[in-house]
Amino acid sequence: MFLWSSKKWSFIPWSELQLGNNRNFQSEVSLVPALWQGTPVMIKFVEKNVDTESERMLRNEIKMVKTLSHPSIPEYYGWGETEKELYLVMELLKGASLEKMRSTLKGQYAKVSELFYRCVEAVEYLHSRNIIHRDLKPSNFFVVKGGSSIKVLDFGVAKSFRANTTLTGDTGSYWYMAPEVISDGYVENEKQYDMKADIYSMGIILNELLTGVMPYAEYLEETPWQIANTVLRHNLRPQLVSDCPCLTEFQSLIQACWATDPESRPNISQVRNEMLQILKKMDIDVKDHNKGSCSLQ
Q1: The domain containing residue 19 runs over which residues?
Q2: Selected catalytic residue, list 135, 154, 170, 198
Q3: Whole-angstrom Cα distance, residue 295 to residue 297?
Q4: Gene3D superfamilies, from UniProt (predicted)?
């Protein structure tokens, strides 16, 4: 078990928030810096009854994050709702996403390895809570300024998973989406999927960080849907990393993670154990944020 103290979670009236002037628009979702009870926060909100899909995703995120507590999960303070807006209040993060750091991280294999290990810890925590993120990608892993701390973001399409759960339908970003998730819309019978879909995404991410090149960069003239179709029908994968320390170990781990058959992929605890062996071989010592956890099946 992951042992973390329960956190406070409350309804936060709009009147308690002191908004900043800068809005960062992400389609129909706005991110606004603010103060709440003297604490710098970020407000994520949507206008109700304007974009029903964005509203649905934010409601899902509110439902998902209210019980989460882990060093690799942002602090979420609460939520609120007015006649016109739905919003989520979270800690104000300073730093940059792995996507924005991709070019600067190129060739920094020790740094990449440590950061990816932190990403694995975050996903292991989610999976221990029976949560599938379903949209893992570099833009959803945030590197906190001044260190190697990672925060996993955006739980809008995350789902709780139980043994009798059936998950179907394509969700997330096509470059990082597992074949069994892509299948909706391309084949007559949707394939069911589980946490192994996140493992596939992690393999794509690790390869991207080690190469410093976005997935399928050589196919930029193709649409995301065309690439996804080729992944599904012809087992297309990004060009595998060919030059880095522990090359054989990294290649084996990546290929295991992005295996076509979900049953052939490791679980997230196995990925973490493999990364620990690689880090040890690279003489990198990391603190285990998930110490005391049980082995995931």
Answers
A1: 10-91
A2: 135
A3: 7
A4: Phosphorylase Kinase, domain 1, Transferase(Phosphotransferase) domain 1
